[in-house]
Amino acid sequence: MDAATVIGAVLRAVNDHTVVHPYGDGLLVDLPLTYGDGDGVRVLVEPMGSGYRVTDRATAATLLAMAGVNLTAGRAAEAFGEILRNAGLNGVNAIPGEVATFGAPDDLGRLILDVAQASLRADQLRWLAPRQAGVRFVDRVTDRVAAWAGRTRKLQRDAQIPLQSGRSRPVTLRVANDGTAAYVQAVSLRDPDQAAEHCYHVFGLSTIPREKRVAALDGSEQKWSKAIVAELRTVSDVEFFDDPLSLERQLEKMVPPPQTALRS
User: Fold this and answer.
1) What is the longest distance spanned by two Cα atoms in the chain?
2) Domains and CATH numbers, the chain
């Protein structure tokens, strides 16, 4: 298999599953991507002056509102703004909550992908919705990581992590791609001392490098003892569930996306 074969296969798959519909003076573009609830990603392309304006029509913001996430203030609003800034979108004529940009005709493909990617990242903020009674923290962590991973990484629940003794113990998740993997352990506030001790014990005895281990702690940093956090940081990376996008950022470093193009 060579690079041209891989690139051709990817381009054919994207081409076969991209659908365009006329919409007013522009076009609606359905991409082979999905939000966390399974809805497909659709962007609107409209001619504007000498170029094109591309927008998600505030779809991600609408889905977040339906999930109970408030984008007008607080952590969610800050994280949403950070997503737009990092994506490099200029937000021409954007209404509140809209992911939009404008650019030249030669850049249209990139503009569409930039808006789609930013809209997908914004949709991940649904995990800032008020906690639902009865939903276990381990399930909330799993759902959040699954939404981030999409179809590009493989997830395994209750994954076995190898120990120095030759035995293995289960952790919450294994996230893998292209021969590299990271292990995530959910650490709940329901019984913080016991949950933290279990995480410390398993990760501390593991043969997996520390830089491939993540302790996902329930709530915010303020809800945890500094001593517990310091102990866990000796055996793993520590991320707090209430910190928007921090868990996703760390996993992105540990398990990079698959290469869709290889350079010879």
Assistant:
1) 67
2) 3-128 (no CATH), 137-263 (3.40.1350.10)
Determine the Cα–Cα distance for residues 62 and 69; give it in Å rounded to an integer: 9
Closest-CA residue to 57 (of 90, 94, 89)? 94
Measure the CA–CA gap between 115 and 98, rounded to whole angstroms.
10
3-class secondary structure, 122: helix
HSE-up of residue 185 (Cα within 13 Å, Cβ side): 27
d(CA 64, CA 50): 33
Residues in CB range of 175: below 8 A, 6 or more apart: 145, 149, 153, 154, 155, 181, 182, 183, 184, 251, 254, 255
Residue 21 CB-half CA count within 13 A: 7
State residue 263 phi and psi, 5-degree precision: -100, 135
For the sheet containing 51-55, what is the strand order?
19-23, 26-34, 40-48, 51-55, 100-103
Which of 133, 42, 55 is closest to 97 using CA atoms? 55
Rounded CA gap, 166 and 159, in Å?
15
- So what's the pLDDT on residue 131? 67
Chunk the chain into consecutive blocks of 10 residues (it has 264) and report each block's average pLDDT, rounded to whole numbers: 81 87 91 84 94 94 84 87 92 92 96 95 85 77 85 89 94 92 95 94 96 96 95 97 88 80 35
C-alpha closest to that of 120 among 223, 11, 32:
32
How far lies 71's CA from each of 17, 36, 80, 102, 130, in Å? 31, 17, 7, 23, 13
Q: Beta strand 40-48 with 51-55: parallel, antiparallel or unpaired?
A: antiparallel
Token pair listed for 155? 């997830």
